[in-house]
Structure formats: structure tokens, C-alpha cells
Design goal:
The structure holds 2 protein chains of 2 kinds. Chain A is α+β, with helices and mostly antiparallel strands. Chain A has one domain. Chain A has 5 helices and 6 strands, in the order αβαβββαβαβα. In chain A, the strands form 3 sheets. Chain A has a two-stranded antiparallel sheet. Chain A has a two-stranded antiparallel ribbon with strand order 2-5. A two-stranded antiparallel ribbon of chain A has the order 3-4. Chain B has strands spanning 2-10, 25-28, 34-38, 41-45, 51-56, 63-66, 72-75, 79-83, 89-94, 102-107, 111-116, 121-126, 131-135, 153-155, 161-165, 170-174, 180-184, 203-206, 210-214, 219-223, 229-234, 247-249, 255-259, 264-271. Chain B has one domain (2-271): Neuraminidase (6 Propeller), CATH 2.120.10. By secondary structure, chain B is mostly beta strands. Chain B is 0% helix and 46% strand. The chains are: A alpha+beta, B mainly beta. Chains A and B meet through α1 of A and loops of B.
Chain lengths: 205, 273
């Protein structure tokens, strides 16, 4: 078996583990919510930050500013199975900042420094372009501003980062203030079972 | 050096000279005929851009190349279809192990090259289809870095192989045996002489220089073989969502670029200033 296949297997195992852990956590919070109750979720196909075809526009940060929770219940989520593990990740770096001596942008994109990266696999310390990178979003720092989502979107990126309502943070308002403000009507209410199913489908596609 | 836009060929539509869903590959032959791989069809345009003939492929087609004997190769998933110049199917070369999506095909003096996206490498075969070696795979990351999902390459003088390595923001030069000779290109998000984004250039052509296309935003450029930028050929004609824009250059120096959203082929020619 080639080394590449081994790495793919590793990625797949990590992705499966992440999905299971996330689902276990998410499911726990969902189960706590009453049966038959509905929960809020972001429709990535409507959100202007992730919707395909919207390029050259500023990221929308209404999820940050409109949520009643102090640090918004909407957070960026990186779907590892779709991530390209790029050296120059436009969601991690400010790609228009000056290039440093290693040939990389000198500034990060996230204003809250909520994305961490580390080289994975066999690491070449001399040339960053010779490595794959894992990008991890620190959900305790992320406020859902959507900048990384906009930059990760196809065709600039692969669209692995999307905004999601975190059920453990969301207070499940009857009339979500983000949904009232969102001009794209991207916040939608789903039955608990469907919300959980959607996450499963999204994460295993 | 400057270029001007002189023509648009094809476009989205159901007419015979148009494309309905995809436009993925371009090639030119020694007579200046343009071959376009789109949908599940090869279309041939004459040097004036008029549709000359077209024929179907067995699967959606990812690439097209014309061999020195005039035969036309169409890259598909898991196979290459080989046609004569009139579109008559001569043979289907299947290799489920060594061919994933075949996004580029090329020829050296004594071998056939095929880009395999699934393994992020260029496969080299002898003329009897015996596998000889991989190109672009003997490195730290076991292949070309292609988050964009396309492997593209071109064969230059003395059988030097130029491969796009977009994740490294480079065009790499290889011997047919797979030895890396060097590269041009670097990352910079502002300097037009460099390549920007996560992964550029995505596609390239070689003829008296290196011609590249980029995505986000779409851009076409010409370099000399030392990596010096000669011209930014075009930026604003293309749909902003274009990516993996195939490119070909004919003997007259005319540059053909596939807009993958508008499904049109934009033609540029050098201007003497």
C-alpha cells in the first residue's frame, strides 16, 4: 500500500472520528431539546458567504452581530473530508498581505485568530510548500464572522468551511434574531430529527 | 509584449458549435485546427473558428490531444478513446488502475503521457502502452498538489515536460523519466508575476514560452522559460467563477482559452508594439 493511501486512510479515520464526536455532542444537545421541537440551522446554499457564484463581495457578518448570545451561536466548521490541506489556505492567510521569507503571506485572515494549522504527515521543515496542513477552528474563539467561509468558497477554495448553528450554544429563540436580519433567509428551522440528519448527510457526502 | 482579444468561439447553447454543460480541454494541431473537449463530444474548428466537424465520446470528456500522425485522443475517466482525424473510433485504451479522470494527454518522441487525477501524477507509457514511469510523484507529498482537481501538463522542446503544480504555485520541469529539472513560479497575492490563491496555475501550454491560466480571479499570462512574466494576456473577459481553464497556443502564437462557465473559447493574438 502506498504512503499516500495510508495518509488517506488516516484522514478518513480522523474525519470519521471527528464526525462521530461532533454527532455525539450535537446529538446529546439535540436529544435534550424536546421531541418534536424545531431548531435553527444555517442553509449553506443560501448563506452569501458559502453560496456558490457570489465572488468578489464582502463577507456578511450578521450572524456575529445579530445573535442574542454574547459570542454568536453560529460558528465556522471545517469539513475535513473536503479540505484541501493547502499550504496557502486563503481562509487562514490574508493572501494579499506581504509575502514573508518563507514565501507565505505574513498576515492571518481571522481577526480572532480562531484558526490553527499544523503540518501533517511527513513534514519538510525547510519548504512549507512540501507539506499538507490541517486547519482546526477553535470554536471558543470563532464568532461566526464568515470571513474564512467566504475565502474558502469555490473557486478560490474548496468550500470545506461553512457556518453552522452550534446547538450547545444556541438558546433556540422562537424568533431567531439572525433569521430576521438575514437578507438571504439563510437561517431556517428544522425538526430536531431532520437537523441531525442534515448534519450526517453533510458530513459524510 | 501585449495581446488582444480577437474572437470568441462556442458559447453555451444547443447549437452544434456550442456546449451545453462542460468545456474542459483544448488542443491545436499543426494545421491550426482547434480541438475542443466538452460535454461528451469532440468539436473541431478550423483556423477561422468555424465548426468543421464533431463527434461523440463514450463518456464525458476531460481532455483532448492530437498526436503527430493526426490521431485524436480523448481523455475520460478510466480510459482514453483514440479517433482518426475524421472522428472514427480507432481504439479505446482502458486502464482502471492507472487512469482516473484523464485531464491531460501528451506525446514525447517515443512515449504517451496521461494525467491521472486520482493519483496526482502523470503516467508515461511506451507506444505499445507499456507503463514506464510516473512523473511528478516522486516527492514529499507523493504527487502534484491539485486541490483544484486537475492535473495539467505540456510537452516542450527536447521532450521536456512542464507540469502545473498549483498547490506549490509552480510550473515544474521534468525529464520523461520523471527527474525534476527545476521550476518557475512563486506565491504572491498581489504581484501579477506570481501566482495567487490556494492553488495556481491550474493549466498551461508551452510554445516558445509558458502560458498559464489561473482561477479566482481568472487570469491568463505568458512567461519566458526563465520564469520572467512577458504579458498578462487577459483577466476581465472570463466569468469570475471560472476555474481549470484549458489553454492552447498555435503556431501563429494565437492563444486559445476555455471559459468553463460561459463555455466559450476566447482567442487572443499577440500585438506588435
Amino acid at each position: 500500500m502506498s504512503e499516500d493511501l495510508t495518509r488517506r486512510d488516516l484522514f478518513a479515520k480522523v474525519a470519521r472520528g471527528t464526525v462521530l464526536a461532533t454527532l455525539a455532542g450535537g446529538a446529546g444537545f439535540l436529544v435534550k431539546k424536546a421531541n418534536g421541537q424545531v431548531v435553527w440551522q444555517v442553509n449553506a446554499a443560501r448563506c452569501i458567504n458559502s453560496r456558490l457564484g457570489e465572488v468578489g463581495v464582502e463577507a456578511c457578518n450578521l450572524c456575529t452581530t445579530e445573535c442574542v448570545v454574547a459570542l454568536s451561536a453560529v460558528r465556522a466548521v471545517n469539513e475535513y473530508s473536503k479540505c484541501g490541506r493547502c499550504n496557502i489556505c486563503p481562509a487562514y492567510f490574508n493572501i494579499t498581505s506581504a509575502v514573508n521569507e518563507q514565501g507565505q503571506p505574513s498576515e492571518k485572515l481571522c481577526p480572532r485568530d480562531a484558526i490553527a494549522r499544523k503540518p501533517i504527515g511527513k513534514v519538510d521543515p525547510e519548504d512549507p510548500a512540501n507539506n499538507f496542513y490541517e486547519y482546526l477552528i477553535d470554536e471558543e474563539k470563532c464568532d461566526g464572522c464568515g470571513k474564512c467561509v467566504m475565502q474558502c468558497k469555490d473557486p478560490l477554495g474548496l468550500g470545506s468551511i461553512t457556518l453552522r448553528v452550534r446547538y450547545d450554544k444556541c438558546v433556540n429563540c422562537n424568533s431567531c434574531s439572525i433569521s430576521r436580519a438575514c437578507p438571504q433567509h439563510a437561517l431556517m428551522q428544522l425538526p430536531v430529527e431532520q437537523a441531525l440528519q442534515q448534519v450526517v448527510l453533510k458530513r459524510t457526502e | 509584449m501585449q495581446y488582444r482579444h480577437v474572437q470568441a468561439i462556442g458559447g453555451k447553447g444547443a447549437a452544434p458549435d456550442r456546449f451545453t454543460a462542460t468545456l474542459r480541454g483544448l488542443a491545436v494541431d499543426s494545421r491550426g485546427q482547434l480541438y475542443a473537449a466538452g460535454d461528451s463530444e469532440i468539436k473541431v474548428f478550423d483556423a477561422a473558428g468555424r465548426l468543421k466537424t464533431r463527434w461523440p465520446t463514450a463518456q464525458p470528456v476531460h481532455s483532448v490531444a492530437v498526436d503527430s500522425d493526426g490521431s485524436v485522443c480523448a481523455g475520460e475517466v478510466g480510459q482514453i478513446e483514440i479517433f482518426d482525424g475524421s472522428g472514427k473510433l480507432i481504439d479505446t485504451w482502458r486502464d482502471q488502475k492507472l487512469f482516473g479522470p484523464v485531464t491531460a494527454i501528451g506525446f514525447t518522441k517515443d512515449s504517451v503521457l496521461a494525467a491521472d487525477v486520482a493519483d496526482r501524477a502523470i503516467r508515461r507509457f511506451d507506444r505499445h502502452r507499456k507503463f514506464l514511469n510516473n512523473i511528478g510523484k516522486d516527492n514529499q507529498v507523493n504527487g502534484l498538489l491539485i486541490p483544484n482537481g486537475v492535473v495539467d501538463f505540456a510537452v516542450g522542446e527536447q521532450d521536456t515536460i512542464y507540469a502545473a503544480n498549483p498547490g506549490k504555485h509552480r510550473v515544474e520541469r521534468y525529464t520523461p523519466a520523471g527527474e525534476l529539472l527545476g521550476h518557475i513560479g512563486r506565491f504572491d497575492g498581489v504581484d501579477p508575476a506570481a501566482f495567487t490563491g490556494c492553488c495556481n496555475p491550474t493549466n498551461l501550454a508551452v510554445r516558445n514560452g509558458i502560458f498559464t491560466t489561473e482561477k479566482a480571479g481568472p487570469r491568463v499570462k505568458a512567461y519566458d522559460f526563465s520564469g520572467k512574466l512577458l504579458a498578462v494576456i487577459a483577466t476581465d473577459l472570463f466569468d469570475a467563477n471560472c476555474k481549470n481553464m484549458s489553454i492552447a497556443v498555435d503556431a501563429r502564437g494565437r492563444v486559445y482559452v476555455a471559459d468553463t462557465v460561459k463555455l466559450a473559447i476566447f482567442v487572443f493574438e499577440p500585438v506588435n508594439v
